[in-house]
Design a protein that fits this description.
Bound molecules: nicotinamide-adenine-dinucleotide
GO biological process, one term: fatty acid beta-oxidation
Pfam family, one: ECH_1
Number of helices: 31
CATH class of the largest domain: Alpha Beta
GO molecular function, one term: long-chain (3S)-3-hydroxyacyl-CoA dehydrogenase (NAD+) activity
Number of strands: 21
Shape: globular
Structural class: alpha/beta
Family: In the central section; belongs to the 3-hydroxyacyl-CoA dehydrogenase family.
Protein name: 3-hydroxyacyl-CoA dehydrogenase
Radius of gyration: 28 Å
CATH topology of the largest domain: 2-enoyl-CoA Hydratase, Chain A, domain 1
Number of domains: 3
Largest sheet: 8 strands, mixed
Length: about 725
């Protein structure tokens, strides 16, 4: 079935309408490119056609390239994948350049005007195609998002968007759109110069423009074109490029190949004529697509993330369990956040705490959150009222009547939680699912307080709830499918990404992040310079070093978890060396950011001013410091081996969840695609060798798990053995 339709009206304007069948949003496929190419040829060859308008048959223009196609392009590129990819990309450029030249000769004579009319969102190739047209019209649709978000999934705009946007806006002005994937609504996109006009009826405006006999030569095809803001060897351009290079390397720490490649494409492209610049862009794009990091990022951050959001692990036979009325017990930090995100999703919320004052404070969180949004022009007073009208703050459990899901977020205490579960049960009906937001207590134990343990489940949010995209759903031993479906349908309603794991100490995310923090603290105890620990973490792509992370989550929480873990494990407890350091820190009153004193020092405004120099008095750095890679391997393997053990022990049942959960849950080096993708990148055999070395030098916690050793011996990869294709076989 056709993805692009072609029609010519009585005025001689050909309209090419993009309308991919069976999808709510257009995405570009290889078939689509072929059809577009053929329609352009028809329009340019037909003397009755005066010009062309390219638009969409849907409410939006396009969401971008089908990233599954990019993933496949590489696999199908034959014996010489780099060449295959480069030629594929150049083929795409050929079509776009044909649109841009529109039949003009080499003296810029002749040709037909081609305009883009965007009814709504235009992302990625959905903006790169309009950028190749001669004028871009967009509807005045404040919900529309316009931009080039490719960098977010580990690639960069490789359909000419990089070269064209830099030439249209200048390198400096294009930087936030290319390097940060910044999206704008049509009015802001016009103000930035990305699109040309905002119109009530963009198709009519585009047709009128096409018929007005406009000049269609792009500035960069004119003689004497100068790049806005200056090319690299212009004094102003020099400043821009030196600054951009420093900024990109500062932000990415050199671990994201796409950002560097983008910058190279922009810099080198700026020194040469347009058609050469496009070839350079295509070469750098190929270079990025050939890097295993981009494959892994696309797989985890796009394909698998979306699959999980669409219910890849949802019990298929259970009917829709969308939540209509949600109860939240405990209006503290987490409960208040859960109430906010549920109200944003249009769900009615009853927010309960012990005292009315506490419940009101929880509801007021939504109020202050919306006030901040209003100040920044991102929300309206009506929207705020709308959200607040959905949240009832009370101490009265009878208000829960009719709730179909209740989430408990009271103090982390088994007895208090059990008492709350019992009270909830008395107030709700027989089909209500009860969930706990506990971060450490086994779900199976908490389910003992429930009359119907099959309808009891863990729904573990991360803090701050409104920002963190992952929700970890935990099945207790008796949790049934309906509870799992309820939790997943709720997470879909609030537009977050779920993973479903089995019950075990610390579930999945905390299980992996605690050893990371502990390894950092352990090194400080051994005399490794704290700055080396923190920088090693950042240079391997972790968003926060372990010492900063424990400052953020608070040192007394670390102490509390250590005490509880020790009590549970007895003599097998392995982290005494870590406790020496954090117990000492707690004794010094250095509890982390909230006390404005931790591994870091803070100023009066609570801003970090640097690592705390007082630490050296108790834990002086040793004269001999380890190699950077040794520190990095300790920090990475501390997390990764725990992920492997979670898979081996059946806590994780799907490696996609392990990878997506790691990146969204605790920021595990996103460039790697997640712990399992990283292990596949270096190979199980090398991982086992590295682990053996680490175990010999630093202890048994690094001993390779049996599963990894077995995979090394058999030459297996995680995605080969446990990936969706292997599971389906
Ligand atoms: P908090 O101390 O900010 O809030 C707890 C709230 O529960 C308080 O308002 C308290 O008054 C209320 N409460 C206590 N007993 C109650 C009862 N019997 N009935 C009604 N309300 C009661 O704590 P928090 O940080 O929001 O954590 C809540 C839960 O979420 C804990 O189980 C915690 O482990 C878990 N959790 C916390 C985080 C985090 O980062 N803070 C992350 C994930 C999960």
């Amino acid at each position: 079935m056709a993805e692009f339709h072609y029609a010519v009206d009585a005025d001689g304007v050909a309209t090419i309408t993009w309308d991919v069948p069976g999808r709510s949003m257009n995405v570009m496929s290889l078939q689509g490119f072929g059809e577009l190419d053929a329609h352009i040829d028809t329009a340019l060859a037909d003397p009755a056609v005066k010009g062309v308008v390219i638009t969409s048959g849907k409410k939006d223009f396009a969401g971008g390239m089908d990233l599954n196609v990019i993933a496949r392009m590489k696999d199908e590129a034959g014996d010489d994948p780099a060449r295959g990819l480069f030629e594929g990309v150049m083929g795409m450029h050929g079509v776009l350049r044909k649109i841009e030249r529109a039949g003009m000769d080499d003296r810029n004579k002749g040709g037909k005007p081609i305009a883009a009319a965007l009814p709504g969102t235009a992302l990625g190739i959905g903006l790169e195609l309009p950028l190749a047209c001669h004028r871009i019209f967009a509807a005045d649709n404040p919900k529309a998002k316009i931009g080039l978000p490719e960098i977010m999934v580990g690639i960069f705009p490789g359909g000419g968007g990089t070269t064209r946007l830099v030439r249209k806006l200048g390198a400096m002005a294009a930087a936030p759109f290319l390097l940060e994937g910044k999206l704008s609504d049509p009015k802001k996109a016009k103000a930035a110069g990305i699109i040309d006009e905002v119109a009530e009826d963009p198709v009519a405006a585009a047709k009128a423009w096409v018929l007005s006999g406009p000049s269609i030569v792009k500035p960069w095809d004119e003689k004497g074109y100068k790049m806005p803001g200056g090319a690299p060897y212009h004094p102003a351009g020099f400043m821009t490029f030196v600054g951009a290079s420093a900024m990109v390397n500062g932000k990415t720490k050199g671990v994201y190949p796409a950002a560097k490649a983008l910058l190279s494409a922009v810099y080198e492209g700026a020194l040469v004529p347009f058609d050469t610049a496009i070839r350079i862009e295509a070469r750098w794009f190929t270079h990025v697509l050939m890097n295993p990091s981009s494959t892994a990022m696309i797989r985890s951050l796009f394909i698998n993330k979306e699959a999980l959001e669409k219910g890849a692990v949802r019990p298929a036979e259970v009917a829709d369990q969308s939540v209509r009325k949600l109860g939240v017990i405990g209006a503290g930090m987490m409960g208040a956040g859960i109430a906010l995100v549920a109200a944003q999703a249009g769900i009615e919320v009853v927010l309960i705490d012990q005292a009315q004052e506490a419940a009101d404070k929880g509801r007021a969180y939504t109020e202050s959150y919306m006030d901040k949004g209003i100040k920044r022009g991102k929300a309206t007073a009506e929207k705020k009222q709308d959200l607040l009208s959905r949240i009832t703050a009370t101490t009265d459990y009878s208000a829960l009547s009719g709730a179909d899901l209740v989430i408990e977020a009271v103090f982390e205490d088994t007895a208090i939680k059990a008492e709350v579960t019992k009270r909830v049960q008395q107030a709700v009906g027989e089909t209500c699912i009860i969930a706990t937001n506990t971060s450490t207590l086994p779900i199976t134990d908490l389910a003992r307080a429930a009359d119907r343990p099959g309808d009891f489940i863990g729904i573990h949010f991360f803090s701050p709830v409104e920002k963190m995209m992952l929700v970890e759903i935990i099945k207790g031993r008796e949790t049934g499918d309906r509870a799992v479906a309820k939790a997943l349908d709720f997470v879909r309603q609030i537009r977050k990404t779920p993973i479903v794991v089995n019950d075990a100490r610390f579930f999945y995310a905390n299980r992996c992040i605690i050893p990371y923090i502990n390894e950092g603290i352990r090194m400080v105890g051994e005399g490794v310079a704290p700055a080396l620990v923190e920088n090693a973490a950042k240079l391997v792509g972790m968003p926060l070093g372990p010492l900063q992370l424990v400052d953020e989550t608070s040192i007394d929480l670390g102490v509390k978890i250590a005490r509880a873990t020790k009590a549970a494990m007895g003599d097998a407890y392995p982290d005494g060396a870590v406790d020496d350091v954090i117990f000492w820190m707690a004794d010094q009153g250095r509890l982390g950011r909230k006390a404005a004193a931790g591994f870091y020092a803070y100023d009066a405004a609570g801003k970090r001013t640097g690592l705390w120099d007082g630490l050296a008095a108790e834990y002086p750095p040793a004269a001999d410091q380890p190699e950077l890679t040794e520190v990095q391997h300790r920090l990475l393997f501390a997390q990764v081996l725990e992920a492997v053990r979670a898979l081996e022990g059946g806590v994780l049942t799907d490696i996609r969840e392990g990878d997506v959960g790691a990146i969204l849950g605790w920021g595990f080096a996103p460039w790697s695609g997640g712990p399992f993708s990283w292990l596949d990148m270096i190979g199980a055999a090398r991982a086992v060798d590295l682990c053996k070395g680490l175990a010999a030098r630093h202890g048994d916690r690094f001993a390779p798990p049996g599963l990894l050793t077995e995979m090394a011996a058999r030459g297996e990869t995680f995605y080969g053995r446990f990936g969706p294709a292997a599971q389906a076989a």
